[in-house]
Amino acid sequence: MLDEEMGRSGVFAYNLAELHMVLEETARLKPDRIKQKEILDWLEHENAHMNVAEATGHTGLRYLLLCVEDKTVPLGVSFLPVVLTDAPDSWTPEEVLEKDIQVLLAPRAYGNKLSPSDAHSLLSNRTLISKIAGRKNSSK
Amino acid sequence: MRIAIHLLDMTIGGLPGSSGEKSPAEKMRELIQMEFASALKNPITQKRIDEIDARQWKINDKFYKTGIRNPKEEAES
Q1: Residue B77's closest chain A neighbor by CA?
Q2: B11-14 contacts, C-beta under 8 A, 24 or more apart
Q3: Which residues of B touch A88 (CB under 8 A)?
Q4: Residue A5: what pLDDT?
Q5: The domain containing residue A70 runs over which residues?
Q6: Is the full-model pTM beyond 0.80?
Q7: Which residues of A touch B59 (CB under 8 A)?
Q8: Shared domain check, B67 and B30
């Protein structure tokens, strides 16, 4: 259901070559704003997330470039590239959170920077892990 | 390796004038342009992204608290 909705407002890509073509299209649509440097930076950042997500065993991996309504910019949309992942059913809550943290931190490990949303999710995941550990300790 | 083969295939198929048929890369680019045209007409709002995030957090939070997943709820999200 979510994929369907996202698909209406964005473009999915299932490998790096496809993502490159999708990002090049953004530059064609906004030549004054999006240059090769931005495209390479996006590719590097999302590819880092994807590489680590593959290594951690996440499933359902795909890239998505979302068109987000924004009246302040040309075309009335901003572009938001994301990597979507699923966690296998067999993972415990701690495993899900710890592996998500690895995926969130991936750009830094590859020499890129974390996005504000990466940093926000990272903080939330770490807080949740502490809460789960606290609950476990108090029930002992 | 799969990506390398895919790229090679696109390069060969993409040589200009090599045949009247469209290369895989050209077909893919056309598909992407069509999807863009549709997405640009239906951009998502930041409010809707926040709603989706909040719903996802709610579902995940239940799982983090109980360790039990709810496949029905996850499928509907």
Answers
A1: A2
A2: none
A3: none
A4: 85
A5: 2-139
A6: yes
A7: none
A8: no
